[in-house]
Specification:
Elements lengths: L7 H22 L17 E5 L5 H12 L3 E6 L2 H14 L5 E5 L7 H18 L2 E7 L16 H28 L3 E6 L11 H24 L3 E7 L19 H10 L7 E3 L2 H12 L2 H20 L8
Parallel strand pairs: 1-2, 1-4, 2-3, 4-5, 5-6, 6-7
This protein binds NADP nicotinamide-adenine-dinucleotide phosphate.
Length: about 325
Amino acid sequence: MPTDWINPLAYIGLAALTYTTYKFTRQATVYLLPSTLSKTHNPSGQNWALVTGATDGIGFGFSQELCARGFNVILHGRNASKLENRARELGAEFPNCKTEIVVLDVVSVTSAGIDTVASQIRAITEKHGGDLSVLVNNVGGEVKPYTLVDGYTFEEAAMTVDMNAGFMLQITRALLPLLCEGTKGLVLNVSSISAFGMPYISVYSASKGFVDSFTRALEAEFYAESRNVDIMGLRVGQVRTANFGVTRGLFVPNGRILASAALNRVGCGQVIVWAYFWHWVQGLSVELLPRSMILKITTMKIKSLKKLEHGGNKVKNT
Ligand SMILES: NC(=O)c1ccc[n+]([C@@H]2O[C@H](COP(=O)([O-])OP(=O)(O)OC[C@H]3O[C@@H](n4cnc5c(N)ncnc54)[C@H](OP(=O)(O)O)[C@@H]3O)[C@@H](O)[C@H]2O)c1
């Protein structure tokens, strides 16, 4: 009688297969579950969302999609006239939504700057009624793409960290009391595939690692304190934007499609989630392939993006 089946290796293999199948299925179902975003709506019907870096790309996509889902939107950026133009565009597309703007450069931001924005946001919700229920920490990007870390100046490195990590931390800290006042709050932190650790964009990559880690820690803290705010991190692959000249395709959505996918993931039960299904499919390779192979592939990809930029295209984020 064959005794192979009692070989302990077979049990280990079976357990590994069961675990992998469970993990894969669990992750895949995330894309089928209905969004619970509407739970943040309050009875007055006046729901406010703040989107940082809202004048372009993914941030403007979030602003459009939040308006489409019944939110009034506060657009944040550093350029007042660009913000006003975007607010007008939203007004034309979504006549029932209110929009407001707040202006603050997120680089070298001060305590006073953050406090002013927080007071402006409180004043906006008090003027119109309703609560700030959603904060989308979207602002970010690469200041000096495709550079070795010692090719950065002190200022460039600090700017990259401010844009991607420092401001997100400070604005979240300052706005949490407001977010806790409403029916239910939600914080969405925009991260990147580069959080895994990528060459030639190490400062940006590490800043996004901070975003992931802060997201997890905050979610754990809120769970421990039973606070009424959901925290979710959004892992993002390549997205075609005005500043990122990659070709659109199945794996490269535009900002609005990405934002819509992200809002559809709210309530999916994962703290950090690939917002867009096809980015998740891409991301599986990071989990399944050996790191040496991933590094070879990402190095080739980043070098080709570098060439693209030198050919005159703007490529800033990954
Ligand atoms: N695009 C991608 O492929 C990709 C991939 C992974 C992750 N991400 C992440 O997604 C987020 C959005 O990226 P995106 O590609 O949509 O960016 P984007 O198109 O370059 O837009 C960035 C937004 O941030 C604002 N901004 C930039 N610097 C600022 C500053 N110092 N102070 C205030 N506002 C500032 C910009 O305002 P101005 O209009 O004034 O410049 C704009 O509204 C970022 O966190 C990025 O890291 C993007």
